[in-house]
Amino acid sequence: MEITSQVRPVGLLGRPVAHSKSPQMMNAAFQHRNLPYVYLAFDVEKERMADAVVGMASLGFQGFNVTIPYKVAVMDYLDEVEEAAQAIGAVNTVVRQENRWVGTNTDGEGYLRSLSDETGFNPRGEAVTIVGAGGAARAVGYALARAGAASIAIVNRTPAKADELAHRLSRWTKAEGIAPARLGEAIARSSLVVQTTSIGMHPHVDDTPIKKELLHAGLLVSDLIYHPRETRLLREAKEAGILIHEGLGMLVHQAALAFERWTGREAPVESMRQRLEESLD
Ligand code: ATR
């Protein structure tokens, strides 16, 4: 698609943004659908965030993504923050709606879509264990709770954070912080375990937060790490004949949902995934 005067900007605000794969994925999507948008990454200083958001409105931005370290701070500059972003406590996508900035969070729904697309798993009525209690765990926990998970056990190195997340989720489901020593018990009762910590991430590929002895048939093992695509946890689960779910899909689908909010069109998920895979090679 040619860059003409009709092209509308969208983008990413963060610091740093140099390693983000979003520009490749989003621009591939716009090109695939032949839509007149361009996606740019902006490395913004903290003191300049307010100016940046006001400036984007002046320049006709249809929306933008937000990444570290501004996912919470950006809320101060928005006109509305939707339930998902409030519940998760972070904004990753902002949409221009009737001359207002509306903040949302597509991570949780992106996770659910990926889970459903790639494994067919439906959380309704299921018992789930989440390992970790950071930002990613909040997004996944919120989505699973809203999708009707019967119970969510949260296991974290720092137990107080697990309790805090359980408290947040207790509005929608039976949620409980569990001591790390009781991880095995929680997993034994679960049909889905979601690994949300950085354990097993490149270059520490020999680490796993869940020993293979704790895995069982009838469990779906989901790991949010996408570099490497197959973590030790996923490899060991696969070797034991247990169904797995890779982390890459969540990244694709959270972007696809932002694309859909900005353009009103269905996202070309497969071409986004392909472009992301190429950019990770
Ligand atoms: P993200 O946005 O990716 O979720 P985060 O908010 O920094 O990142 O959360 C990181 C999560 O990984 C936390 O649950 C963290 O545990 P603590 O709350 O105890 O810090 C967990 N984590 C990171 N490194 C870990 C390690 N070496 N062992 C156990 N847990 C770890």
From TrEMBL:
<keyword id="KW-0560">Oxidoreductase</keyword>
<feature type="binding site">
    <location>
        <begin position="156"/>
        <end position="161"/>
    </location>
    <ligand>
        <name>NADP(+)</name>
    </ligand>
</feature>
<dbReference type="GO" id="GO:0004764">
    <property type="term" value="F:shikimate 3-dehydrogenase (NADP+) activity"/>
</dbReference>
<feature type="domain" description="Shikimate dehydrogenase substrate binding N-terminal">
    <location>
        <begin position="12"/>
        <end position="94"/>
    </location>
</feature>
<comment type="subunit">
    <text>Homodimer.</text>
</comment>
<keyword id="KW-0057">Aromatic amino acid biosynthesis</keyword>
<feature type="binding site">
    <location>
        <position position="226"/>
    </location>
    <ligand>
        <name>shikimate</name>
    </ligand>
</feature>
<keyword id="KW-0521">NADP</keyword>
<dbReference type="InterPro" id="IPR011342">
    <property type="entry name" value="Shikimate_DH"/>
</dbReference>
<feature type="binding site">
    <location>
        <position position="254"/>
    </location>
    <ligand>
        <name>shikimate</name>
    </ligand>
</feature>
<feature type="binding site">
    <location>
        <position position="107"/>
    </location>
    <ligand>
        <name>shikimate</name>
    </ligand>
</feature>
<dbReference type="GO" id="GO:0050661">
    <property type="term" value="F:NADP binding"/>
</dbReference>
<feature type="domain" description="Quinate/shikimate 5-dehydrogenase/glutamyl-tRNA reductase">
    <location>
        <begin position="125"/>
        <end position="198"/>
    </location>
</feature>
<dbReference type="InterPro" id="IPR006151">
    <property type="entry name" value="Shikm_DH/Glu-tRNA_Rdtase"/>
</dbReference>
<feature type="binding site">
    <location>
        <position position="83"/>
    </location>
    <ligand>
        <name>NADP(+)</name>
    </ligand>
</feature>
<comment type="function">
    <text>Involved in the biosynthesis of the chorismate, which leads to the biosynthesis of aromatic amino acids. Catalyzes the reversible NADPH linked reduction of 3-dehydroshikimate (DHSA) to yield shikimate (SA).</text>
</comment>
<feature type="active site" description="Proton acceptor">
    <location>
        <position position="71"/>
    </location>
</feature>
<dbReference type="InterPro" id="IPR013708">
    <property type="entry name" value="Shikimate_DH-bd_N"/>
</dbReference>
<dbReference type="Pfam" id="PF18317">
    <property type="entry name" value="SDH_C"/>
</dbReference>
<feature type="binding site">
    <location>
        <position position="247"/>
    </location>
    <ligand>
        <name>NADP(+)</name>
    </ligand>
</feature>
<dbReference type="InterPro" id="IPR046346">
    <property type="entry name" value="Aminoacid_DH-like_N_sf"/>
</dbReference>
<dbReference type="InterPro" id="IPR041121">
    <property type="entry name" value="SDH_C"/>
</dbReference>
<feature type="binding site">
    <location>
        <position position="92"/>
    </location>
    <ligand>
        <name>shikimate</name>
    </ligand>
</feature>
<dbReference type="GO" id="GO:0008652">
    <property type="term" value="P:amino acid biosynthetic process"/>
</dbReference>
<dbReference type="GO" id="GO:0009073">
    <property type="term" value="P:aromatic amino acid family biosynthetic process"/>
</dbReference>
<dbReference type="GO" id="GO:0005829">
    <property type="term" value="C:cytosol"/>
</dbReference>
<dbReference type="GO" id="GO:0019632">
    <property type="term" value="P:shikimate metabolic process"/>
</dbReference>
<feature type="binding site">
    <location>
        <begin position="20"/>
        <end position="22"/>
    </location>
    <ligand>
        <name>shikimate</name>
    </ligand>
</feature>
<dbReference type="GO" id="GO:0009423">
    <property type="term" value="P:chorismate biosynthetic process"/>
</dbReference>
<dbReference type="Pfam" id="PF08501">
    <property type="entry name" value="Shikimate_dh_N"/>
</dbReference>
<keyword id="KW-0028">Amino-acid biosynthesis</keyword>
<dbReference type="Pfam" id="PF01488">
    <property type="entry name" value="Shikimate_DH"/>
</dbReference>
<comment type="pathway">
    <text>Metabolic intermediate biosynthesis; chorismate biosynthesis; chorismate from D-erythrose 4-phosphate and phosphoenolpyruvate: step 4/7.</text>
</comment>
<feature type="binding site">
    <location>
        <position position="224"/>
    </location>
    <ligand>
        <name>NADP(+)</name>
    </ligand>
</feature>
<dbReference type="InterPro" id="IPR022893">
    <property type="entry name" value="Shikimate_DH_fam"/>
</dbReference>
<feature type="domain" description="SDH C-terminal">
    <location>
        <begin position="247"/>
        <end position="277"/>
    </location>
</feature>
<dbReference type="InterPro" id="IPR036291">
    <property type="entry name" value="NAD(P)-bd_dom_sf"/>
</dbReference>
<protein>
    <recommendedName>
        <fullName>Shikimate dehydrogenase (NADP(+))</fullName>
        <ecNumber>1.1.1.25</ecNumber>
    </recommendedName>
</protein>
<comment type="similarity">
    <text>Belongs to the shikimate dehydrogenase family.</text>
</comment>
<feature type="binding site">
    <location>
        <position position="67"/>
    </location>
    <ligand>
        <name>shikimate</name>
    </ligand>
</feature>
<feature type="binding site">
    <location>
        <begin position="132"/>
        <end position="136"/>
    </location>
    <ligand>
        <name>NADP(+)</name>
    </ligand>
</feature>
